[in-house]
Design goal:
Blueprint (H helix, E strand, L loop, with lengths): L8 H11 L2 E6 L8 E7 L4 E6 L3 H13 L12 E5 L4 E5 L4 E2 L7 H19 L6 H8 L1 H7 L1 H8 L5 H14 L7 E4 L8 E4 L2 E4 L6 E4 L5 H5 L1 H4 L1 H11 L5 H21 L6 H18 L2
Antiparallel strand pairs: 1-2, 2-3, 3-5, 4-5, 6-8, 7-10, 8-9
Helix pairs in contact: 3-10, 5-7, 6-11, 7-11, 11-12
């Protein structure tokens, strides 16, 4: 577990100029080193969040998402941007009610309800406005761009994959380039229960730093390799409220990025001490290897 990260005094002053006095600060970062998030409590007991993005790319994606895409979800379904400052990669956000779904010990029926609401929110996000020409070009090239990352991930993972596993990843990357047209839109980019907050008000989505124009099916990869792999009832509930079943091309596309996600997990997880991500990669790769055997 990483040590507590203090909020820089300059950022606290900047936040107080926008929201008034801050009476308490709690480190709300994830365990990985580059995560920097603080819960700020004001004098009236209202909470806001200050986040320093890990990179210019993530800051640009997240600040754009909060301005142009996230409002489509509704007032209580996602944080809203109070202000941002590009030179410090900092965003000041409202809080939404709830706790991460993965921490709540939900029963079978509750998990289905959560997935049903997640499907509806995902549909709103994917349909949040027309893509302009540049975004459409980016979105339509997103599957090929994902395939382009295969060799980088394989190099980083090194001997964590054997020869047959490396070949499987390369084969799936090649297949991904041949996938036919699939629906595109704005995606969350890290759509999974760690970024779903559940409360009596319903479900809310957080953490939009990976939001971008892309093939919509890319928002289902983590769910397909974790939640849906063992619980098809959750997938059914999600897609029912999402509004449609996946097309054959999307089903094919979903399998290919799963292989890329697996090798990315095995490249990133061990290096960052994330056992959960590492296990996800190993499990997905094992399942794909089994399915590909004649």
């Amino acid at each position: 577990m990483s040590s507590t990260k203090p909020l820089p005094a300059a950022l606290k002053r900047w936040a107080e100029q926008r929201i008034g006095p801050v009476v308490s600060v709690r480190d709300a970062s994830h365990s990985w080193d580059r995560s920097r998030v603080w819960d700020l409590e004001g004098g009236s007991g209202v909470h806001r969040y200050l986040k320093v993005s890990p990179s210019v790319k993530f800051f640009t994606r997240e600040s754009r998402a909060y301005r142009h895409i996230v409002p489509a979800l509704g007032h209580t379904r996602a944080p809203h941007l109070i202000d941002s400052r590009a030179q410090d990669l900092v965003l000041l956000l409202t809080a939404v009610p709830g706790a991460p779904v993965k921490e709540l010990g939900l029963d079978t029926a509750q998990w289905r309800t959560v997935h049903q609401q997640a499907g509806a929110l995902c549909a709103r996000l994917h349909e949040a406005g027309e893509l302009d020409r540049g975004d459409r070009v980016t979105a339509e090239a997103s599957l090929s761009a994902a395939a382009d990352g295969a060799e980088k991930y394989l190099a980083r993972a090194g001997d964590r994959l054997d020869h047959d596993e490396q070949q499987l990843v390369r084969d799936h990357a090649a297949r991904l380039r041949r996938v036919g047209p699939v629906p595109v839109g704005y995606i969350h980019g890290n759509n999974q229960p760690r970024n779903w907050l559940w409360s009596t008000s319903g479900l809310a989505l957080v953490d939009f730093e990976r939001s971008r124009p892309a093939a919509r099916v890319q928002d289902f990869v983590i769910l397909a390799t974790t939640q849906w792999a063992d619980h098809p009832d959750r997938e059914k509930a999600f897609l029912r409220s999402y509004g449609r079943e996946l097309s054959d091309a999307e089903r094919h596309a979903l399998r290919c990025p799963s292989a890329l996600d697996a090798v990315n997990c095995l490249a990133w997880g061990p290096d960052n001490g994330d056992a959960e991500v590492t296990a996800r990669g190993r499990r997905t790769l094992g399942r794909l290897m089994k399915e590909d055997r004649p």
